[in-house]
Amino acid sequence: MQKKFLSNLILVLVLNVLIKPFYILGVDAEFLKRIEAANPGEYGEYFAIIGLTFIFNIFLDLGISNYNTRSVAQDKNVVQTRFSSILSLRMLLVFGYVFLLAISGYFLEYNTHQFQLLALLGFNQVLVSFILYFRSNISGLMLFKTDSIIGVLDRTLLVMMCVLVLWSGWYQEALSIELFVLLQTASYGITALISGWIVFQKSKSFHFKWNPNFFKEVLKKSLPYALLILLMTFYYRVDSVMLEQMLPNGKRETALYAQGFRFFEAFSMLGYLFAGLLLPIFSAMLSKKENVSNLTNMSFKLIFAIATTISIAMIMNSHEIMKWRFENTSLDLEIAASSFQYLMICFIAMATTYIYGTLLTANGSLKLLNYVAVGGVILNFSLNLYLIPKFGAVGAAKASAVTQVLTAVAQIGVAYAILKLKTPIRDCIEVLLFIVLLSFVAYFTSEFEFLTKIVTLVFTGVILSFLLRLIDLKEGLKLLRK
Question: For the chain, which residues make up each domain, given as ranges?
Answer without folding.
Answer: 2-423
